[in-house]
Design goal:
There is one protein chain. This protein folds into two domains: 36 residues, no CATH class; 72 residues, no CATH class. The protein is built from five helices and four strands, in the order ββββααααα. The radius of gyration is 23 Å and the shape is elongated. 10% of the residues are buried.
């Protein structure tokens, strides 16, 4: 545990290794169901808030798994001068590199097949539309 004194506030940073809870608030996957728990949040001073029902909302995590990383991008993609560093970072977030089967035309995703028919197609369009796997396949083939 680490304690840091900032002016008049104390921040405690620690790693939670165990918790105790009622099994009735767990969903089928063993995760806490926020709708079953009586969630309370501290707002400041002596004010608190209950979080339940319509007050709960979810924001998807941008990345649910660790990507391959820029160092693992194939050299021809990593050194592609048409790609920005942001685009390289997005491509590096894939979980795996397309294999030989993925690169066969009969296995290309429909989005890629359709975009290749467009007159002014660019790989940047695929990335901007969040078709990262399709962009990766296109770059591997060119």
């Amino acid at each position: 545990m680490t304690m840091i004194q900032l002016l008049c506030e104390l921040i405690v940073i620690c790693e939670v290794t165990r918790i105790h809870l009622q099994e009735g608030i767990l969903d089928a996957k063993g995760q806490v169901d926020p709708n079953m728990a009586d969630l309370v949040g501290r707002m400041g001073g002596s004010h608190y808030v209950r979080a339940s029902g319509q007050a709960l909302f979810e924001i998807p995590k941008p990345i649910s798994s660790i990507g391959i990383g820029v160092d693992q991008l194939p050299l021809k993609i990593r050194e592609n001068s048409d790609l920005s560093s942001s685009e390289l970072a997005i491509l590096a977030a894939v979980e795996k590199i397309p294999g030989e089967e993925d690169l066969k035309p009969e296995n290309w995703p429909l989005v890629l097949k359709n975009m290749l028919r467009e007159e002014n197609f660019s790989v940047h369009q695929l990335i901007q539309k969040n078709h990262i796997w399709e962009a990766f396949i296109y770059l591997m083939l060119n």
